């Protein structure tokens, strides 16, 4: 293609790659969508270069797909219309940890785990922790407004974003937000970019707030002999105004697939368990644990394991984080849903998963951030079951919306949920978003075909 030749002349052959294997790798993410192919991958090293790429793309109307770690599960990083994938792997610097102001300045391609490690050295904590933190980037987290286990107490990515440097679709560069804790000048423009999945602008620098590293972490492991008890118990914890930093749920549908790695931690009759974690000052954590024990007891916990050692804790979290990759190795295709309902309805989500199993005869594996009302209902399917899968997904979304829930608590709409947005939002709300898209990206080159 002529324009690729020109792009290579501008950025150098080593940073504009159009050989097939690279294009294939950078045209996939964790959504399982495999039938799109970008024309080339560009590796910018600065905001100026990103701006030049966008000016170039705008002039020739070439689609742009920004890409972080490619761990998205809704298809946000798939180059649906071909064109250029911008990889941020060379813009991966932690620029500044400002200890006096408790802020952090980073490039978009920093792997989240590196942020955790670096800020911790200075006694700080950056809480949002998608289970993919070893591979996802902070740019991708902003673009999906990522959540994770620690979000019940500490909030999601958007709660930590102070300001953004963004390159707009025709190459203009803006700084939006402020490096202050409070800010109210004009509309919440940074908020429009949070969760925009690469469709409104490309982030080139991110300014985050930090909090002090908690003094102490205590983990509880709590098995139940009924899945419903685990669901009700998590709502009861919150109803009792106890806010752990995590309440994660895993049930027997996962044990069946993962087997002894998980089962060996529990009595045989276990059907589900909660992994609960508190953080804070030692005294506070002690009090929280005293408060939660009777709630767990009253809600049919068959055991309450406390005093979990750090190495055991790490092991448990590793197993928890590996569930999705493990499901993907089973040979089935995995549709990983991330529906979220108000706290009090959490146990209904477990029932809905059971209904899907019965009605659609699909394998369904359930785990996730139950404390937030956010469960990963994973539908395992085979090629010939595509139709059934789509009906099951629609069934799930309709049920969740009836409970005042959302079809996506953290993964975003991307490609996979695009046709279903109307279940949750009315036409006026969708059309406002279309207008915003048109203003910011009049030529529709930024990640076209996503969200709306
Ligand atoms: C095993 C596993 C566990 C997961 N657990 C969680 C979880 O607990 N919580 C959660 O929220 N998610 C989770 N996810 C989903 C995923 O990791 C998150 O959505 C993550 O934020 C994506 O980051 P990424 O860097 O991989 O982005 P990508 O997948 O590369 O991209 C995601 C979106 O961001 C856009 N984007 C990327 N960089 C930029 C940029 N610089 N500017 C503008 N747009 C950009 C892309 O165009 C795309 O639309 C999980 C995924 C896996 C595979």
Q: How would you characterize this protein structure?
A:
The chain is α+β, with helices and mostly antiparallel strands. It folds into four domains: 2-87, Uridine Diphospho-n-acetylenolpyruvylglucosamine Reductase, domain 2, CATH 3.30.43; 94-212, 2-Layer Sandwich (Uridine Diphospho-n-acetylenolpyruvylglucosamine Reductase, domain 3); 216-324, 2-Layer Sandwich (Alpha-Beta Plaits); 331-415, 2-Layer Sandwich (Alpha-Beta Plaits). 37% of the residues lie in helices and 20% in strands. It has helices spanning 2-11, 20-25, 47-60, 112-121, 138-144, 151-154, 189-193, 227-239, 252-258, 260-263, 282-298, 310-321, 323-328, 346-360, 386-402, 421-424, 427-440, and strands at 16-17, 40-42, 64-67, 84-87, 94-98, 103-106, 124-125, 161-167, 173-177, 202-209, 211-212, 216-224, 246-251, 272-280, 333-336, 363-369, 374-381. A six-stranded antiparallel beta sheet has the order 12-14-13-16-17-15. Strands 5-6-10-8-9 form a five-stranded antiparallel beta sheet. The chain has a four-stranded mixed beta sheet with strand order 1-2-4-3. Helix 14 (346-360) runs antiparallel to helix 15 (386-402). The radius of gyration is 22 Å and the shape is globular. The protein starts with a helix and ends in a 12-residue tail after the last helix. Bound molecules: flavin-adenine dinucleotide.
